Amino acid sequence: MNIIPLYMMPFREVFLLFIIFSFVGWCSEVFYVGVFFEHKFINRGFLHGPLCPIYGFGGCSILLLPPVILKSWVPLFFTSMILCTLVEYFISWILEKMFHTLWWDYSHYRFNLNGRICLLNSVLFGVMGLVSVHFVIPYILQFIELFPSFVITVSSDVIAVVLTMDAAFTIKRLVDFNITMAKIKTFGETLKDHYGHEEWFRSDSIVEMINSVKERGVLENSKINEKIVERFEKLFAHRKTVESFMKRFPTMKSGHYKDEFAVIKHHLKKLNER
What we know:
By secondary structure, the chain is an all-alpha fold. It has helices at 11-38, 53-62, 67-70, 74-99, 119-145, 149-195, 206-220, 223-236, 240-248, 258-273, and strands at residues 112-113, 117-118.
């Protein structure tokens, strides 16, 4: 069965293919990272549903290729490899610019570029492109064609509504994540401005700052120091969203929020040791 390019397919079929690619990508991430490395289930996507849209964009970008490439093997491998790698790099770059965070980090792999992409993943993208185009997508399209048009319409519309709601909620959580990290950073800078000249004040990290303020508050019986500690504890109570993302993306890091990330990761480590 020959595969026609994406731009020649009906819109709803394109959308369903996007969803299928995203779901397969999510399953791959869960099994590869969660089961084999973390030895437990971890929702590896940004969304609450079982989807990783980055795989949807990557898969659909391959189907934008002309038929002569889609029918080939070696050219399809390298084109899939390049296209999906570009998608991964671009999305990583956009997310870091928006939230000051590198959500996945391949720095520990050989032949990586800025930790955003690596040769191993690129080769896997090429293999997945070949398998998808020559062995998977033709049967998916055949399966979709078995359903009447109204079933395709209703199912794609329902999925689109659910996906939109999930995306809206996820965007809110990402904004909350950025706000929380910014507040913790600002709080640490305020402490340095206020107590930085004091000999007893330790400024190596936010944890050290708070501990030194606590210790000084006990010695001086200072109500001001107690209020500062209470303020931090209230602020730190909003860390749940940050912890949730850190569990999903264990290699995430941030130069902008380096100390703040260290605080959250330290707390997560203590929880896991209990």
